[in-house]
Amino acid sequence: MKLAREVSLFAIGGVVGFLVDAAIVEVLVRQAGWNPYMARVPSFLVAASVTWAWNRYLSFAHRRGRDRRREWLRWVGVMSLGAGVNYGIYAVLIALSATIRAWPAAGVAAGSALAAVVNFTGARRIVFNNHEK
After folding, report:
1. Among 28, 103, 112, 123, which is most exposed with the fewest C-beta within 10 angstroms?
2. What is the SS3 assignment for 66?
3. What's the CA gap between 6 and 37, in Å, rounded?
4. Percentage of residues in the chain having pLDDT higher than 70
5. What is d(CA 131, CA 67) in angstroms, rounded to the nearest whole number?
6. Does 132 reside within a domain?
7. Cα–Cα distance between 12 and 26 in angstroms, integer?
């Protein structure tokens, strides 16, 4: 039951993170004229902060450690792998598809889907596993 609850809450947090990520990238590309590759840097950082807080206090509240700084560092490390998967898919789609270049949030969605699996596994096994008791 705990696993199903964690997956459900993690998925909801992922949707929240995706909405934050996609909204920021859309605004930066469409309104501010940013390069779609560079727009992902701030969009990812803000979304990662939002999802870390969500998962710390909701999805894995019963598994979190006391040291937020160490936990955040582990989160950034683990999520960097997921971000690499996410960004790689996004970059390939931007390079290959005029439709994705016109609607970069669709590229964010595609990258986010596969990265979610990588992120959940890392979050559960590495970040929120009560390293420090």
Report:
1. 103
2. coil
3. 32
4. 97
5. 9
6. no
7. 21
